[in-house]
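dumping this here so i dont lose it
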């Protein structure tokens, strides 16, 4: 695992977007998995800007959504699905058959997990996975204590995730479960990048990089990825 420290959030976002652009140029039908949340906002903006400026054909690229809040409709502005459509798929005009997101309203969530695992398998695996980090060290919704080998699964959310997660929604919302790609997917991906910015993430980034790997702090698994990177701005790197 390699840590790269950028001057600011914009530089971090631009560099992360370049990873996607570079991949799509080399492999137009690449499989890219992206997290939602505040951290990847800048990355999405830069991907859209670069695709347009460099006239890149991104129409063959496959996009996998990392996770979703169970029971939250995709029209809700706080859903992960809304994030992807609003910030990436609509600006880039990505067609529906290239978009693979969990249906968190399904009454067969385990079936949704199997479907996602099959899609990833059929497409030849994930080429690049870009994830954020939660305040309890989660990746996607892989909460502390998670089995590192899991593929897609449904999980009960921790108190921290439920509390912090309110920030995405217009009003208070009852959250209890998440549906997520597993850390098995992260480890199977050809390349994995964890991105974080801001002082609030400094402690979890320090733990990710410096603490012995333990499933009570899921993000530590990045240390084990053969082509794993942690991209941070100076604030998130401030106690490394
Ligand atoms: C959320 C999501 C993650 C996300 C993380 C950090 O709960 N489940 O996929 O990466 O927490 O979010 P943010 O970037 O908003 O800090």
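and the seq i came up w/
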């Amino acid at each position: 695992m390699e840590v790269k420290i950028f001057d600011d959030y914009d530089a971090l976002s631009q560099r992360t977007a370049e990873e996607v652009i570079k991949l799509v140029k080399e492999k137009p039908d690449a499989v890219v998995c992206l997290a939602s949340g505040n951290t990847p906002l800048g990355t999405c903006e830069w991907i859209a800007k670069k695709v347009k400026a460099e006239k890149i054909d991104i129409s063959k690229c496959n996009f996998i959504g990392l996770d979703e809040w169970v029971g939250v409709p995709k029209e809700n502005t706080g859903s992960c699905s809304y994030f992807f459509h609003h910030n990436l798929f609509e600006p880039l005009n990505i067609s529906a058959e290239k978009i693979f997101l969990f249906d968190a309203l399904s009454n067969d969530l385990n079936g949704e997990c199997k479907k996602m695992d099959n899609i990833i398998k059929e497409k030849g695996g994930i080429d690049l996975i870009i994830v954020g980090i939660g305040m309890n060290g989660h990746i996607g919704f892989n909460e502390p204590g998670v089995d590192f080998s899991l593929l897609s699964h449904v999980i009960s959310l921790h108190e921290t995730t439920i509390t912090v997660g309110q920030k995405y929604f217009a009003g208070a919302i009852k959250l209890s479960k998440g549906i997520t790609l597993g850390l098995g997917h992260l480890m199977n991906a050809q390349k994995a990048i964890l991105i974080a910015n801001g002082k609030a993430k400094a402690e979890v980034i320090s733990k990710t990089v410096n603490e012995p790997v333990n499933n009570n702090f899921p993000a530590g698994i990045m240390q084990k990825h053969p082509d794993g990177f942690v991209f941070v701005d100076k604030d998130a790197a401030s106690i490394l």
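DSSP finds seven helices and ten strands in the chain.
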